[in-house]
Design goal:
- The complex is a heterodimer of chains A (596) and B (626).
- Chain A is an alpha/beta fold.
- Chain A has 18 helices and ten strands.
- Chain A folds into four domains: 192 residues, no CATH class; 116 residues; 170 residues, Rossmann fold, CATH 3.40.50.300; 70 residues, no CATH class.
- In chain A, the strands form two sheets. A six-stranded mixed sheet of chain A has the order 6-7-8-3-9-10, with helices on both faces.
- Chain B is built from 20 helices and ten strands.
- In chain B, helix 3 runs antiparallel to helix 5 and helix 18 crosses helix 19.
- The radius of gyration of chain B is 37 Å and the shape is elongated.
- Chain B starts with 9 loop residues before the first helix and ends in a 6-residue tail after the last helix.
- Classes of the chains: A alpha/beta (596), B alpha/beta (626).
- Chains A and B meet through helix 2, helix 3, helix 4, helix 6 and helix 7 of A and helix 2, helix 3, helix 4, helix 6 and helix 7 of B.
Chain lengths: 596, 626
């Protein structure tokens, strides 16, 4: 299993092995076509020098009366046709590059999207993995470029060097030195650059972060109101002023260093250029090469240096991108869910036995010693302080997280043995972190059940049940098709409206088990009690799990589970827990005191 | 000034750049002047060099003549290789100067503009587009013009050298090049238009991709299992954009190639004209065009055909982008400002006697319906008020008016009998302190996050420690690695993450240290668990009582969904559909048995000891509530 691939084990060859097939697959024909084009182009680069030589020689000879005017015209025609062919091929090559990279990127992104729905959700809680996940999308494009660059090494540069090498040797064997003069400075420059630049860490980055944070605090969107009310703008302006000095100093320092490096590198190139020039001049004066050959090679020096510079600068950017590509690959080798789809009856007992749960890299268990059986149709409330483990327990119950030890079973089926798809069939929920999708009103509800055809009547009905009046044209100008986001030219809703839509979303999905994880924080009191009533009614024949820190809401459950520090400390109905006079009683009294 | 009243165009932007970094402008101008002669000089020197080298082949004694043009060529090389580095450094320096200036100017302007601009996504977008990377954008204008100048100088120089050989050849070249310019221009524009149109679809595709990969969506994504279908949607959106761009790209490539070829063809015509001159001697028996000059001109022509393909269309689309950017910048500059909004609060605190709303109505700018309708309420010193009401009833709007975030309300608000709008900004700031639902998590350390509430006296440690004790944060401070000096956001290295509840307490402590007599709490406890929440309110009650004992005058207003807590208030104001429908003490309102009483009962029902009904709820399908 490649599960434990570390940073170092993703080497160059592994990258090639993984990335090439991904770039080849979406458009095999284009892939080959592109390689041929780029090879052709580099043959042209070499031929260019030869044909230029031929052209100038003919013209020069004609002026010396060694050849006719007509042969000069013929040479011109050949020369121009060649230039035309070169330009067209060049354009085709660039065009096919854009077409291809766009197609492959789309393919890779959709692959990332798909994969994100198949990995173990607990991976998102692992800071190292989260980094890979977040950067995977950024790594997709460098990966494609990596593929074409490395393949181009052969089709482009090798072709080019062989071709030029033969040509120069055929002119005069010592002229092969020209390639050396071009190649050695460029490669030295590259080695220097990568060793120096990797040490030259961007010292400015943390200062820049601070600088931007103060700018935001002074007058950014989310700070404006309070900063103004407090009159603390000048305080932050002072901080901006102070950090801008240190930021500028850091940027200037980096600028100076890179100027010094460039100075050295350019000197190398300059020496190389001068070397080629002197070598050519010497050969010309010695009568070893013709004036045409001299002119042709001379006019190509710029191009030669250009190609080498492109080559080394690309290697440079690749080195920077390697880490992103590694993120991308590490993400793709996180194991996918390949457990079988099993038919599970959700109207069966949910049994948790001796379960513990620990988040990746955590040093203590988030859940300890959980033993719990939930009967079908039962209503369970989970209460406890912030951070007691309520939401984690729900995630364990639904199978979103696997227990670190112990087992969770629905009926006879262990949740570990079946796919997410089967686990969540006939399971729905409304969560604390409910989403505000920048989609239409209809899509915002329907998204909980995309497998089935959209039932517009049901969408509207569910919304109306939750006091969202779809027909109110003042709020929803396009009814169900109203876009719910300013960003995409739609409308803004209040927090309370969003919560009601989120609840409608959870209820729209056909379910035997439903979770209600504190989604009511921004809903007003009358509304809230109405929602709980409705929820009870709808979940009459369902297994319902309510997470709450409003004790009054917990009371409606048949059984209340009280959690503290990851353990179930009390369990039972409201009366029993009040009699026990434990944490529940304390919390209940704290809250109900306000209503006496 | 950067943000005066005047609008910016290309010229004024350049003037601004000159004012900010005159040294850089002068050096870059000199560089550009030299740089524009260089390509032409290169043509001439190369020609000389070639000719003299040819001559030297035949007669080695003429070798010395090679050295001058060779030296010139090397000097040009040196210039190209080294001046670039210097220009980079100058740019860095100029960038620093501009940043120093622009950062403060932008902060000022953003703080001065009216609050309404922050409440609309469209104007927020304008602010972002206009101010993000402003210093880079300013330099971009300058560099673009310099680049264009460089290309034009190159062409002009070539035309002159060519004209010196044969004047009408350069005329032919110029005329035959025109179609190529036209085509390039047209497609530069077209590409920009399609890019703009497709950006929206791209954003949507990126948004869907975000849903499918984000950590925040995990619960819904896995439970609802929508990945497959939404991914299909992603692919569809992506492909629409990709295919549209591909079509334009294809056209653009064709046009670029065509325009390059047109230049090539006009070049061929010119070469055909020049060719006889390079081969046949004229009447006096000399060959007019030397092989060196011929070679040099031919090289220059083919160099152009490559360069022009790109340069023109890139410049056109770049120009379009910059014009679009100027529009945003000008819109931002035109945003209305509140005068003197950056001031500190007054150090002398006014004695707050009363706040009176008289026939106050208000609608948000750009909306039709009134959010507040004819509000008439009077709040008096020493009392604790609670505002309750449904979502969207106008509770938060009242707060926004009191803190003068909006000034264009109808009716009047009197503070101690004087209209709110007649007070100075500094007095307004000294008047009230608010904990908003979305209070700020400042990028500061623990101490300053609280002390910022008393901005005129940040050093007052005793006051801070006192607030920390009252609000129950002392245990948390003890646990922090650097105690009070611990950074509590991730901006600084070693920053500690605090929980939502802990942050809420910090926001409350910030309110306690604030000397303002009017204190407003806008649902600040939603993230606290019930025990902590109760404690917070109990503590507040004590603060109020304490204040009253000390005969300090002041008013406290809080809004909450949790009606139980409203009992703390001396008076409860019920807002419904923009109107103040009920005002009175808890007992009065309960006795009245109307709206407030109904709401309170509905909530307290959850806390009634009603065993039998509770037990029967499942069987009867929620019969208790029927």
């Amino acid at each position: 299993m490649l599960k434990n691939k570390t940073k170092d084990s993703i080497n160059f060859f592994y990258m090639i092995k993984k990335i090439y097939p991904m770039c080849y697959k979406p458009q095999p024909g284009y892939f080959v076509y592109k390689q041929i084009l780029s090879m052709l182009l580099n043959v042209f680069v070499g031929m260019n020098v030869m044909i230029t030589q031929m052209f100038f020689d003919t013209v020069y000879n004609a002026s010396l009366r060694k050849s006719t005017f007509y042969s000069a015209i013929t040479a011109l025609i050949i020369y121009v046709s060649f230039k035309l062919a070169n330009d067209i091929t060049n354009a085709m090559n660039s065009f096919s590059w854009n077409v291809q990279i766009a197609k492959i990127l789309g393919y890779l992104n959709s692959k990332i999207n798909k994969k994100s729905g198949l990995i173990d959700p607990v991976e998102y809680e692992n800071p190292k993995r989260l980094d890979d996940i977040n950067k995977a999308i950024k790594g997709a494009e460098p990966a494609v470029i990596f593929c074409f660059f490395t393949s181009g090494l052969i089709t482009r540069y090798v072709t080019f060097f062989i071709f030029m090498g033969f040509y120069l040797v055929s002119l005069k064997s010592t002229l092969i030195l020209c390639l050396l003069f071009v190649f050695v400075p460029a490669i030295t420059a590259h080695i220097l650059r990568s060793s120096v630049f990797s040490k030259l860490e961007d010292k400015a980055a943390p200062i820049r972060r601070e600088f931007e944070a103060y700018q935001d605090a002074a007058s950014g969107k989310n700070f404006y109101k309070e900063t103004r009310n407090l009159g603390s703008f000048r305080y932050f302006k002072k901080l901006i002023e102070n950090t801008v000095y240190s930021l500028n100093a850091a940027i200037w320092d980096a600028g100076k260093r890179s100027a010094l490096i460039d100075l050295g590198l350019n000197t190398l190139s300059f020496i190389g250029y001068g070397g080629v020039l002197l070598l050519l001049l010497k050969n010309l004066l010695d009568g070893e090469i013709s004036i045409g050959a001299f002119a042709a090679v001379y006019s190509s020096i710029g191009m030669l240096f250009g190609i080498m510079e492109e080559f080394t600068s690309r290697i440079g950017t690749h080195a920077d991108n390697f880490e992103l590509i590694r993120n991308f690959l590490r993400f793709l080798i996180i194991p996918s869910d390949n457990r079988p789809n099993l038919k599970i009856n959700k109207r069966d007992n949910i049994v948790i036995e001796n379960a513990n749960f620990r988040y990746p890299n955590a040093n203590k268990d988030a859940l300890k010693n959980i033993n719990l059986t939930i009967k079908p149709g039962e209503t369970i409330a989970i209460v406890g302080e912030n951070g007691a483990g309520k939401t984690t327990l729900v995630k364990l119950l639904t199978g979103l997280y696997k227990p670190t030890n112990g087992s969770v079973k629905i009926g006879k089926t262990d949740v570990n043995t079946t796919s997410y798809r089967s686990l969540f069939e006939k399971v729905s929920g409304v969560f604390q972190k409910y989403q505000r999708y920048a989609l239409t009103l209809k899509e915002n509800v329907q998204i909980s059940d995309l497998k089935n055809e959209c039932n517009e009547n049901k969408v509207e009905e569910t919304l109306e049940q939750n006091s969202i009046n779809v027909k109110n044209k003042d709020i929803f100008p396009n009814g169900l098709d109203t876009m719910l986001s300013r960003e995409f030219d739609g409308i803004d809703l209040s927090g309370g409206q969003w919560q009601r839509i989120a609840i409608a979303r959870g209820l729209y999905r056909d379910s035997d088990i439903i979770v209600l994880d504190e989604p009511t924080a921004a809903i007003d009191p009358i509304e809230e009690s109405a929602i709980y009533k409705k929820f009870m009614k709808i979940s009459e024949d369902k297994t319902a799990i309510i997470v709450t820190h409003r004790m009054g809401s917990a009371k409606i459950a048949e059984r209340i589970i009280v959690m503290k520090d990851g353990e179930i400390t009390e369990m039972g109905d409201h009366d029993k827990l009040l009699n026990d006079d434990g944490v529940y009683a304390e919390m209940y009294n704290a809250q109900s005191g306000w209503y006496k | 000034m950067l943000f005066g009243k005047k609008k910016y165009n290309y010229l004024t932007i350049l003037i601004l750049y000159f004012k900010l970094a005159p040294g850089a402008v002068i050096i870059k101008t000199i560089n550009n002047i030299i740089g524009s002669v260089i390509p032409t000089l290169n043509i001439i020197m190369t020609a000389k060099f070639l000719d003299n080298a040819v001559a030297a082949v035949e007669d080695h004694s003429k070798l010395s003549k090679v050295f001058f043009p060779l030296g010139a060529i090397i000097a040009i090389l040196l210039f190209n290789y080294y001046v670039k580095i210097m220009v980079n450094l100058i740019n860095t320096n100029a960038g620093n100067k501009i940043r120093k200036f622009v950062a403060l100017a932008v902060a000022d302007k953003k703080a001065a503009i009216k609050f309404k601009y922050y409440e609309h996504q469209k104007s927020v977008d304008v602010i972002n587009r206009a101010t993000v990377n402003l210093e880079v954008n300013l330099q971009g204008f300058f560099d673009q013009i310099f680049n264009a100048w460089g290309i034009i100088a190159q062409i002009v120089g070539f035309v002159i050298v060519l004209g010196m050989q044969l004047w009408w050849a350069s005329l032919v070249f110029v005329v035959t090049c025109i179609p190529s310019f036209v085509i390039s221009h047209k497609f530069g524009k077209k590409k920009y238009d399609v890019d703009k149109e497709m950006t929206k679809i791209d954003r949507k595709a990126a948004y869907i991709s975000g849903i499918l990969t984000s950590r925040d969506t995990i619960e819904e994504r896995y439970t609802y299992g929508y990945t497959e279908k939404m991914n299909q949607e992603y692919i569809n959106k992506y492909e629409v954009s990709r295919i549209a761009r591909k079509k334009v790209d294809r056209k653009a490539w064709i046009s670029r190639t065509a325009s390059g070829m047109l230049v090539l063809i006009s070049g061929v015509i010119v070469i055909l004209i020049l060719l006889p001159l390079a081969i046949f001697p004229d009447a006096s028996g000399n060959i007019k065009l030397t092989i060196g000059m011929f070679t040099s001109l031919v090289n220059a022509i083919f160099g152009f055909s490559q360069q022009l393909q790109w340069a023109i269309s890139t410049h056109v689309s770049d120009f379009k982008h910059k014009t679009e950017y100027l529009k945003d910048l000008n819109k931002f500059i035109e945003f209305e400002e509140d005068e003197n909004s950056d001031c500190l609060p007054d150090t002398s605190i006014i004695k707050l006697k009363s706040i009176e709303f008289k026939n106050v109505s208000f609608k948000y700018p750009g909306t039709q319906s009134y959010i507040l309708k004819n509000i008439n309420i009077k709040l008096v010193s020493g009392k604790h008020y609670s505002i309750v009401g449904m979502n969207g009833a106008g509770k938060t709007t009242l707060t926004k008016l009191l803190t003068r975030l909006y000034e264009d309300y109808e009716g009047e608000i009197f503070i101690n009998g004087k209209e709110l709008r007649e007070y100075e900004q500094s007095e307004i700031k000294a008047l009230s302190a608010t904990v908003y639902q979305d209070f700020c998590r400042y990028p500061l350390d623990f101490y300053n996050n609280i002390a910022i509430g008393n901005v005129n006296n940040i050093q007052d440690c005793e006051r801070i420690e006192n607030a920390v004790n009252i609000i129950g944060l002392s245990r948390i401070v003890e646990k922090l690695p650097k105690k009070y000096e611990t950074p509590i956001t991730k901006v600084k290295e070693g920053g500690i993450d605090l929980s939502g509840g802990e942050w809420q307490k910090i926001a409350l402590a910030r309110l306690i240290v604030n000397p303002a007599p009017l204190k407003i709490l806008d649902e600040p406890t939603t993230e606290l668990d019930p025990i902590s929440e109760s404690k917070v309110y109990e503590q507040f009650k004590e603060i109020i009582n304490h204040n009253q004992k000390n005969k300090s005058t002041g008013i406290t207003i809080f809004t909450s969904h949790r009606l139980g807590l409203t009992k703390l208030a001396d008076e409860i104001i019920v807002i419904s559909e923009g109107k103040a429908v009920e005002i009175g003490s808890f007992d009065e309102l309960m006795a009245k048995d109307t709206i407030y009483a109904e709401m309170f009962k509905s909530q307290s029902e959850w806390y009634k000891e009603n065993k039998e009904d509770d037990k029967s709820k499942k069987k009867n399908g929620g019969g208790v509530y029927a």
